[in-house]
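User: Hey, my collaborator sent me this sequence without any context and asked if I could get a structure. I don't really work with proteins. Can you help?
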Amino acid sequence: MKMNSPITIYDIAKEAEVSVTTVSRVLNGTAPVKGSTRAKIMSIIEKHQFQPNAIARSLLKKQTGTIAIILPDITNPFFPEVFWGAENEARDKGYTLFLCDTAGDYSRESQYLSVLRERRVDGIIYMGGRINLSQCPPELAQEIIDLSKRVPIVLVNGNVPKGGFHRVYTDEALGAELATQHLLDLGHRDIAFIGGLKEMSTTMSKVKAYRRKLEQSGIPYRAERVLYGDYSIAAGKELMSRLLEGEEQPTAVFCVNDYTAVGAIKVIIEHGLRIPEDISVIGFDDTPLAAAVIPELTTVSQHTHQLGKLSVEVLHRIITKEQMTKRIVLTPELVERKSTGPVR
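Assistant: No problem. I've predicted the 3D structure and written it out in structure-token form, which is a compact way to encode the shape of the chain:
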């Protein structure tokens, strides 16, 4: 061995006069090794202060110890909350977690999928983007289905039809029913819904549940009371402004998420109206913003940390080839704060 060259597992094997496989067994404890042989190898390892690098370990174990999480918008508080739960669980299980923010760009999703395949990650947690499309284009669906044959993938709050994926998700339709019923119980009959994209299944499941609850209560569904946009504060401001500029103002507003609700609250206050005395506002997700805004936001909890934690647990079991149910469904919870109140 050259004195200044990095020591490799092959050098250890040569000096100990054993095979590379035997050294690997000692390093990883994957199979019994004769006591005298083990002692000889460990002595050489200590002498050279040898530490196998990540690449060497991955070649030996056929695992990289890395998993990736793909999400559409790191600036939306919902996704960092899920990521936090996932990251803590991943660290506890010995994984390094890669974060891939697609910015809602499907071509960027494809690029990340290609990179992650090349990096040989042990698994992928997938949130948002194409898995939330009501009608996912076949080529986008097939891309992720093909990759799943080589890399374990867990979907969070989404689905790919006929993909057979393991999924962890909150029953968002039930959450929308809880939100709508809460407003109905407070006496509201003119309830608007704002935010979200029509092509996204997560939006439409909420709208359908909202409509179903209204009709069950004998209240006609009014299409003009449902305004679509995106999931941002800016969308909440714009859509709420449109509602307030109409001839008849709603008494309550159900927002697609907390981010949109913050924008709605801002506009309501700017118009000199009171929350909840004049208009009640309810959000969705129960992100940290919900408790920080004034008035504190009534919302629906998706148990974001639990979503992240469970997604890693499921992925780990797939990686280690344990039996695992295909679907884990979390029950949402209404979190009542100060932004909702009885209708005047």
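In plain terms: The mean pLDDT is 92. You can pass these tokens on to your collaborator as they are.
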